[in-house]
Amino acid sequence: MSDKMCLNCGRTSQEIPLLTIDYRDETYHLCPQCLPVMIHKPQNLAGKLPGAENFSAADHEH
Known about the structure:
Blueprint: E1 19-23, E2 26-30, H1 35-40
Antiparallel strand pairs: 1-2
């Protein structure tokens, strides 16, 4: 069995906990440190997650 990897940084489940994301009937993994990329700059996942270039960032302020 191969290790699951963060789709953004490539770290494995042996290195860091991973979150599971189901999208378009596929399963992807993202580490907690890369989760802000998914929320704030999802277009940065283009080429790593199908269609990410069409995602919009969350519309909120901190």
